[in-house]
Write a structure and sequence with these properties.
GO terms for molecular function: nicotinamide-nucleotide amidase activity. This protein is of the alpha/beta class and 168 residues long. The protein is built from 6 helices and 5 strands, in the order αβαβαααβββα. The protein has helices spanning 3-18, 32-38, 56-63, 67-73, 78-90, 141-161; strands spanning 22-26, 47-52, 96-102, 117-124, 130-135.
């Protein structure tokens, strides 16, 4: 089993132990996080749904990300990651939601938002959404996307294991 597979298994087991469902909201990974989870037999016990919101319109329509947030901060931002995670939680039966938005390359980067910049959002029932970023080395689109999946699964596992986690 790959390290991504092992992380996905660990996250599924942790969610099951806490009796919570989970959801994802993905932009730059295009569904790779939910795929890593649902590749594992029995994942339906804790995986509710995945939102693939590649466009800004999809982020607004499916997750409720505000147009003002996207105008002021852009799709790749702390604010958008927070709203994506909160929206996935609100539009699912999940007690945990993971969101990712970033610049996977090879183009699309800028001085302020270079290729490899990814914002992660984590929302849990009964707690404020949290966000953090990583700046992955630009070793190509596949590398950045794989590292994003690996990081998101790890952040999800950390969120489930935090004291006071409250599933629905």
């Amino acid at each position: 089993m790959s390290d991504i597979g092992a992380l996905a298994s660990a996250l599924l087991e942790a969610c099951e132990a806490h009796g919570t469902m989970m959801a994802t909201a993905e932009s730059c990974t295009g569904g790779m996080i939910i795929a890593a989870l649902t590749d594992i037999a029995g994942s339906s016990a804790v995986v509710d749904r995945g939102f693939i919101t590649y466009s800004n319109d999809a982020k607004m329509e499916m997750l409720g990300v505000s147009e003002a947030t996207l105008r002021a901060h852009g799709a790749v931002s702390r604010e958008t990651a927070l709203e994506m995670a909160a929206g996935a939680l609100a539009h699912s039966r999940g007690g945990l939601a993971l969101a990712v938005t970033g610049v996977a390359g090879p183009g699309g980067g800028s001085a302020e938002k270079p290729v490899g910049l990814v914002w992660f959002g984590v929302a849990r029932t009964g707690a404020p959404a949290e966000a953090e970023f990583r700046l992955f080395e630009d070793k190509g689109r596949d590398f950045i996307r794989r590292e994003t999946v690996r990081t998101a699964l790890g952040l999800g596992l950390r969120a489930v294991d935090q004291t006071g986690f409250a599933g629905p």
